[in-house]
Amino acid sequence: MGAGHAHAMYVHQHSPVHHLAPEVKIVVALAFTITVVATPREAVVAFGGYALMVLALAVVARVPAAWLAKRSLIELPFVATALLLPFFASGPRVDLLGLSLSVDGLWGGWNILVKGTLGVLIALLLAATTSARDLLVGLDRLRAPQAMTQIAMFMLRYLEVLADEARRMRIARVSRLDDPRFLWQIKGFASGLGTLFLRAFERGERVYLAMQSRGYTGRLPAALHADSTATARQWAAGAAIPLVAVVVLLLFGGYPWKP
Question: Are 79 and 113 spatial neighbours (Cβ–Cβ below 8 Å)?
């Protein structure tokens, strides 16, 4: 996987977060997310602390706020669910601005909104500071299932190839006066998808045979593991983030003193 296949989510910068080993960032993101999920929904101050931590990470990583805001729109369906819960949930109700809202629905909507937003932001920061190739290397170093890492590696490697193939097929159809915008031409569109699938399958067979002839053993090449291996200093720096989150949880989340 060459550098030319870095995914569109990656923000090229030179920052301490970018220079961390990928396995460290993956573990930190997972631990931080687990801490956020484990926080009681009533711990509003704790969520404020988590938000400040995410903001500080974005500043250190030099990821623009506009970039984060634009791509965080992916959670809009969950935001809609959170906004509707107070109206349709059962239980005790409270009047707010002339509206009768469910108390449990308000807390449930807040729970979905704040945890979902923090989870999306930390995932976006991980994607912005780690290329697709490094993410796969980090997962492989963490002993993730080989089937998952290999499928993801080939998918990322050949996604652009298949997209180019689909564009060429569409240009060929249009040059023959076939306009795929009309509904009655759906049969031709379906035939094109079938042809694309067959070409991708045949290409995959050829690539796999070529890899086997070059000594492929079912794991990522050892050369990918040789660079940027996590050091003890990097693990210590990365561990500070979830540790601070745990401290915030213990101080403001009601654990272990909450009855």
Answer: yes
Angle at 149 between CA 148 and CA 154, to 5 degrees: 105
Average pLDDT, integer, range 229-240: 90
* Burial class for 39, CB neighbours closer than 10 Å (0-12, 13-18, 19+): buried
29 pLDDT higher than 90: yes
Question: Which candidate, 30, 15, 47, places its Cα nearest to that of 241?
Answer: 30
Cα–Cα dist 148/87, whole Å: 41
Domain of 134 in residue numbering reads as 3-138+229-252
- Amino acid found at 26: I
- Verify that 149 and 134 share a domain, yes or no: no
Q: How far apart are CA 122 and CA 238, in angstroms?
A: 14
- Answer yes or no: do 207 and 233 share one domain: no
Q: Are 93 and 100 in contact (CB under 8 A)?
A: yes
Res. 60: pLDDT tops 90: yes
| Residues 18 and 116 reside in one and the same domain | yes
Q: Are the CB atoms for 221 and 153 separated by under 8 Å?
A: no
pTM comes to 0.76
Helices 44-61 and 232-252: crossing angle, nearest 10°?
A: 150
Kindly state the DSSP code that residue 99 receives in the 8-state scheme.
E
- For the ranges 51-55, 63-67, 75-79, 123-127, the lowest mean pLDDT is seen at 75-79
User: Do 235 and 229 meet the contact criterion of CB atoms below 8 Å apart?
Assistant: no
- List phi, psi (to 5°) of 97: 55, 40
